[in-house]
Amino acid sequence: MDKVVLGRTGIEVNKNGFGALPIQRISKADAVYLLQKAFYNGINYFDTARAYTDSEEKIGAAFEYTREKIIISTKTAAQDAAGFWKDLETSLKTMKTDYIDIYQFHNPAFCPKPGDESGLYDAMLKAKEEGKIRHIGITNHRIAVAKEAIESGLYETLQFPFSYLAADADLEIVKACKDADMGFIAMKALSGGLIHNSAAAYAYLAQPEFSNVAPIWGVQRESELDEFLSYQDNPPVRDSALNEEIARDRKELSGDFCRGCGYCMPCPAGIEINNCARMSLLLRRAPQAGWLSEEWQEKMKKIEGCLHCNQCMKKCPYGLNTPALLEKNYEDYKTFL
Ligand code: SF4
Ligand code: SF4
User: Fold this and answer.
1) Which of 219-228, 264-273, 278-287 has the lowest mean pLDDT?
2) Rounded to 5 degrees, what are φ and ψ at 183?
3) C-alpha to C-alpha distance for 315 and 228, rounded to whole angstroms
4) Among the atoms of ligand 1, which is closest to the Cα of residue 265?
5) What ranges do the domains of the chain cover?
6) Considering only CA atoms, which residue is closest to atom 2 of ligand 2?
7) pLDDT digits over 84-119, tens only?
8) Architecture of 3-248 per CATH?
9) Nearest atom of ligand 2 to the alpha carbon of 262
10) Which ligand is nearest to the CA of 258?
C-alpha cells in the first residue's frame, strides 16, 4: 500500500484518500458503512468541507471512537474572522472531535495573509495556537492563487485539481509544492467524472515523480470504493493499453472544457451550468439515456433563457467563455434528440 507524506506536516497518509463530497447524496447509514469500510481496509485520510451539507456529520458518526487513528481535513469558505470561528466550531461539534488535522481555506478568490483586512489568516493562526487545528491548508482552482500560496510560505498543504489531463502549469504547481515541502492533495483526479478508467487515473498518480501527491477519490458507491481498495494490493500498471487510453482522453479533453466544478453558480436564469456546459462530453463519455431524459431536456432548454449577464464567466477559475460554451453544448445536444 503506497503512502504519501504531506510535506512539512509530517503526516503520512495512505495514497488512497477518501473525498467525502459525494456521501452527501446517500443515507447516513450507507455513508457510515462506506466510511468505516474504507477505514478498516487501510484508508486513513478523509477530506470534507463545511459546505458539503451533512458530510461532516456522517464523518463524525463513523469515527467517533476511532478519531485518533485517522486524518481529517475540512474547509471553511468564510469571508471574515467571525465566519471562520463559526465554521470551525460547527465543524468540530459536527464531527465530534476537538481538533482538525488540516484546516483549509475553501477556494478563496485571494490568498489570505497575516494582517490582511479579511482577518482570516490571523484567525487560522489563533486556532492553531489554541490546538483546535493542527495544520494550515488552502484549496484552490486558480493557478495564480495556488502559486501565491506556495510562494508565501504560509501554508502547509495545497489542495488543487490534478489528474492525467493536467497541463504543464499544473505540473509546475505539483513540483513547486514538493520544492517548498508543502503537502499536495489532488482533487478531481477523475476530472469531475470525465475520466472513467480509475485504473488509468490511479496508475498515473502512482508514478515516482508524483510521490508527493495524495489523491482524494470522491466515493459514493461501494463498488467505487472496492475498485480503489483493490488497487492497494494489485496496483494498476501503465501498460500500453492504459497509455493509449490516457493519450486518447488527453486529445479529446484538451483545451477549454468545463470541469464541472460549479464555481460559476448559482445562475440567475436557473441554468445548471456545471453539467449543461459539458453536455457534449457527458453524452459521448457516459451512457446517454439519462442525459436525454425529459428532465434533462428541460434543463438544457433553460439555456435559451440565458441573460448574458456574464456572472458565470467572471467566476470561472478556468477563464472559460461560459455563455458561449453553453450555447455550443445546447446546439450539439439538440442533434441527439
Ligand atoms: S451569463 Fe447566462 S449562464 Fe451565465 S450566469 Fe448569466 S444567465 Fe447564467
Ligand atoms: S464553467 Fe467554469 S466554473 Fe462553471 S462549472 Fe465549468 S469549469 Fe466550473
Assistant:
1) 278-287
2) -70, 140
3) 33
4) 5
5) 3-248, 273-334
6) 316
7) 999 999 999 999 999 999 999 999 989 999 999 999
8) Alpha-Beta Barrel (3.20)
9) 5
10) 2
